[in-house]
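step 4 of 6: structure.
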Amino acid sequence: MKSPWLFADALPADLFGELRQRVIFECCKWDPQVEDICTLLARPLVLSQDAWTELARSAEQLALETLAAEAELLADISLQASLKLPGNLRKAFDLAARKGPSAEAARVMRFDFHFTTDGWRISEVNSDVPGGFNEASGFSRLMLPHFPGCTLPGDPAGALADGIVAATDPGSTVALVHATAFTDDRQVMVYLARELESRGRQAVLTGPDHLRWRNGMAFVASDWHTGPVSLVFRFFPAEWLPNLPSVCDWLHFFTGAVTPLSNPATALLSQTKRFPLVWDKLKSPVSTWRRLLPETRDPRETPWQTDETWVLKPACGRVGEGIGIRGVTSEKEWQAIAKNVRRRPDDWVAQRRFQMTPLICGVDALFPCIGVFTVNGRAVGAYGRVARTPIVDHLAQDAAVLVKDSAQRMETPGSSFLFTHESIGAF
Amino acid sequence: MNRLELFKTWAPPQSKWSRWAKPALFAEMNVLQPLPQDAPVPRIDVANDAGTAVIVDLPGAQSVQVGLALAQDGYRPVPLFNSAYQGWAVVSVEGIAQWLARGANMLSGLSLPPEAPPAFLLDSKRKGGEVLPMPGKFDNRWVVVPQDFPSYNYLMANGIRRVLLFHDRSNAQPDCDLAHVLLRWQEAGLELYESRLSIDAPPAPMRVKKPSNFGALWYRVLAMAGLRRNSAGGFGDVVPEPSSSHG
């Protein structure tokens, strides 16, 4: 099978060192190092135009199906049983079903694609609080000039800001709600704030505990800002909302908010990895989902303990944490995961393992993942990550994603970078 | 001096330890004027030892001051302050920011070699303590995780055999989050020492006790989840609301 991407040479170390510092300060990339790993990859992932077109089209179809499925699940809470949501969240969904969901705008999702021996597959959707904007927009933009002949697949942060601007009045204030103590989250908010402010909106960075509601209208009550907001952008996982003090009235993220939300907490219905377990009960076709996502089951329905073709995933897992793949995950980790699955199977799914096709780069086998963002259903850019194992987790490196049309060779000042369709091998 | 220039001063590309410097504080701080190059900074008496890495876990500006003192003894200070810079914050970082700026000229004037051993700088008040995390305050507390530091293999490959912890705790055990880092190194074979700045005594050997969740598969997630919970209303507890029983 022909590889969808052209893998470019790495930038020289001194040039990339300078670029790394620009990414830190211009693109708010404040976590450039994890243990011994530089989180930024010195070479871009270059997709062919045809491959990007295919991914963008698939992502848009997936977004459409996801919204339809969420609406159906929201309207009939009996369909949610297989999701095994915690009790406090079930109560919130029950209220949302009876009173109607909160207002929403600028719905953003990210679908994670992997190239496999069977073509493109997805591993998950980040439909609740997708990240990667700084890298997908900022890092890729800074890498682009070094690879003439390429273009960007989009600008997710800009598109998201455009979506928010379209839903708000000029000069109004947008609340960027996040875990303020977590600089990995704050860096995303600072970057998005810059995008919003360049478009004539005020951004207030705030914790979820500083948000208050009056007749469905949101306002911020903190020592550094007090006042109403025209939209609430939430970068705080929905499953954490019940931890908030009652005065925060977090149910508004599910129902009763007149101030539009991006994203509404009802996104949790598709964010959970147990989402595929309800497909058979839905009227909505999820044909693209069925085509691209490997078979997914409740762990109790599979022989995962003896059959190595099943992967174990936590239902609320993010960034690849806690995924168990026999032979890839260390034995110690596998045993811990297996114990947890046996004890709390409702919190897990078993998913058929797919065979990622690594990019062979010298002696390295690299496993890329392309996260395609959609805003209001439209594909707006891509976030690249490259792992050294088939699990794309927090040790994966961020890669700029560029799109090349047809030429195989690109010239850059001082050196030339040879682009070839990488040979791919079964892993 | 702008923020990028200041960061480059503290994390020069040629140093083998700069990659671990945390940029978050630099990226948001209001940069002040550096001190003249010959301005006085505290001195401490530490023998330069290329085989020793130092961790400075002292409150706020004192951590930076000791870092500058260690720089004069040949150590490369590596700021690991992973905190947001904002007013009304639970953890005051103003003093840290001031000293990062004030010490810049002195640091660049030392022309430390790329192989200078590292002195990792932490704020021992990173989990709060001075300001109550009252409603309305900006929660910028933070923790360290093993991934914030070089691995044992990297340390060994660069000649580090010992780690010396400067602290101001009443007992010799490090704070829980730092214990996760140090115990990994201890188990891998590094020698650990501790020194209380307030006590005029040579560094003493240290055996780090096992903290909760040590080696847990999801420790990093748990630690991060702890931070998320902070922002959602407290460090393992709910931030007291005025109307609540916690007052």
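step 5 of 6: annotate
 - Chain A has a mean pLDDT of 90.
 - Chain A touches chain B through 47 residues (CB under 8 Å).
step 6 of 6: archive
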